[in-house]
Amino acid sequence: RAVINIGDDIPSGTCIEANAHALARYAALCQEAGLVPMVEPEVLMDGDHDIETCYEVTEATLRALFGALYEQNVMLEGTILKASMVVAGKDCEEQASIDEVAEATVMCLKSTVPAILPGIVFLSGGQSDEDATAHLDAMNRLGNLPWPLSFSYGRAMQSAALQLWSEDLVGNFAKAQSIVYARARDNGMAALGKWEG
User: Fold this and answer.
1) Domain residue spans in the chain?
2) What is the pTM of this model?
3) 41, 68, 105, 169: which has the highest count of C-beta atoms within 10 A?
4) Is the pLDDT of residue 156 over 90?
């Protein structure tokens, strides 16, 4: 995992290239060992940047990553991309709509990610549970995608259940399980573009 922060004069080109190189070396070593690498260049949503700035940084990050993967002779057909969505910073006054995030993310991916990649999964990156699901669903509803888009959420899958368990592990066990099941079902439908929200 490589973390890219957006702020005043960051990330630098050197930062992006160094992180891309590290991810590419990791991917090459995974494949040498017979493993499928999941490369994760996470552009954080911390800060007050707008969606356009996130798009520019995400595009530069993905271009550098795929250049580095090529230089390290990584077989893209055996690699998974774990990407962040193109969103405004969480402190930005103007937040983009669900459709705007979906369109910006897909446009960014189509301009940087080779079609030979077998799939892209998304991290939730601090989005609310519902926003992460809605964004994934909206992207898949756009159609005409060269790769399947799915999810690899942590917080957006577990946070509600963990909150219940923190209050009463034994007493809330079944209720927490049903929440995790519902989150998995909703995200599975979103990966098909069939979430009913």
Assistant:
1) 2-157
2) 0.93
3) 105
4) no
